[in-house]
């Protein structure tokens, strides 16, 4: 099923396999288009348990991966090789097969302070993302911007692409409150936005989010209220 609107283009798939391949094909097409127009393409990825199958399917795409820069939407304040980091997920799922030739930028690095990490992320962000993959938590968070988070209003209004955040007290952050996150300013210039979600609960939550515009209540709203590209949503049960 496909539902198109001015802010959101919603596509639903009957199976997880269809959903994963559709996401991979969508991203591959955007990256191929970018490589036809520019020397390099840039892809920003989210972590979590949902997008892995899409990344695995995308890893087999016949692209010039050596010309593609892969970076992160957000990261927990962990070493890049920590099994709970988003970097580890990307290595295990995307940076395999043909995509092993891509250039990967981690947000954290051993011996680098959080201030240095954010500064490096903002320097890399001068290259406009061709595609940004977003996720959505059961609390309505996206990237590492959580409802009720300390400094959420400041993060949403930040002029920089990345900020350090403190999600202490936010259940959705689990045991990792210290994080680095993309902001609306970092999302705005992106040429394509793709939200990957699964399950009836997430669908209902997205519908609720689309009934309002305040990202302080549900940060996922920044995905479709931030000026720029229309949000594409891929959903399956």
Automatic annotation (TrEMBL):
E.C. numbers: 3.1.1.31
Entry keywords, A to Z: Hydrolase
Main function: Hydrolysis of 6-phosphogluconolactone to 6-phosphogluconate.
Family: Belongs to the glucosamine/galactosamine-6-phosphate isomerase family. 6-phosphogluconolactonase subfamily.
Pathway: Carbohydrate degradation; pentose phosphate pathway; D-ribulose 5-phosphate from D-glucose 6-phosphate (oxidative stage): step 2/3
Gene symbol of the encoding locus: pgl
Organism from which the protein derives: Luteimonas soli
Protein's name in the database: 6-phosphogluconolactonase
GO molecular-function terms, A-Z: 6-phosphogluconolactonase activity
Glucosamine/galactosamine-6-phosphate isomerase domain boundaries: 16-223
């Amino acid at each position: 099923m496909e539902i198109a609107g001015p802010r959101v283009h919603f596509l639903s798939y009957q199976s997880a396999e269809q959903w994963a391949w559709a996401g991979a094909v969508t991203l591959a097409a955007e990256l191929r288009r970018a490589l036809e127009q520019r020397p390099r393409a840039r892809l920003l990825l989210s972590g979590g348990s949902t997008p892995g199958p899409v990344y695995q399917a995308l890893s087999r795409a016949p692209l010039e991966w050596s010309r593609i820069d892969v970076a992160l939407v957000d990261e927990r304040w962990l070493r890049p090789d920590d099994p709970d980091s988003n970097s580890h997920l990307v290595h295990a799922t995307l940076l395999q097969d043909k995509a092993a030739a891509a250039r990967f930028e981690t947000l954290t690095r051993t011996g680098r302070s959080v201030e240095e990490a954010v500064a490096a992320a903002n320097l890399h962000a001068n290259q406009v993302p061709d595609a940004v993959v977003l996720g959505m938590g059961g609390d309505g968070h996206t990237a590492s911007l959580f409802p009720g988070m300390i400094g959420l209003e400041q993060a949403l209004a930040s002029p920089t692409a990345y900020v350090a955040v403190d999600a202490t007290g936010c259940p959705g952050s689990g045991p990792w409150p210290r994080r680095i996150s993309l902001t609306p300013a970092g999302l705005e210039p992106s040429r394509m936005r793709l939200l990957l979600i699964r399950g009836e609960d997430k669908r209902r939550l997205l519908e609720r989010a689309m009934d309002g515009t305040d990202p302080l209540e549900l940060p996922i709203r920044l995905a479709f209220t931030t000026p720029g590209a229309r949000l594409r949503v891929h959903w399956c049960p």
